User: What shape does this take?
Amino acid sequence: MVSFLAPETEFDRPSGISADCHLDLRFHDISEERSNRVAPTREHMQAFVDFVRAWDKSGSILIHCAHGQSRSTAAAFIVLAMLNPGHELEAALMLRDKAKHARPNPLMVRLADEVLGAGGRLTSGLEQMGEPTMAAFIQPFAVPMRF
Assistant: This one.
């Protein structure tokens, strides 16, 4: 389980999830530095990439943020790209198909692109993903790990 929440947000890990199976990253949903806000950093994305690499892939990974639009969808895209290297555009298009509301955080994607040494492929996939549609209610979604 991965939590992407603002530093001031209270959150208790569900009792069925052990601490070693939970990564709790704290930053605001912003894509550039702002006063009184914590932006995602390369260190955050390195920790996330390391956590995903350590995951045994025997089951699902639950990723959440506060609203399910930006941080968690960026993370879902990053996981898809990690599990399907060389298919970043397909990963972006699959995410758009499964989560029409998705607005992946561009700073998270750019930083993960750098951490992964993807040469801009994640950023390019994000740019080609297409615009989100507005949703009155955001529904959880699932994507296959490999395609």
About this structure: The chain has a mean pLDDT of 94. The helical segments are 42-54, 71-83, 88-98, 106-116, 121-127.
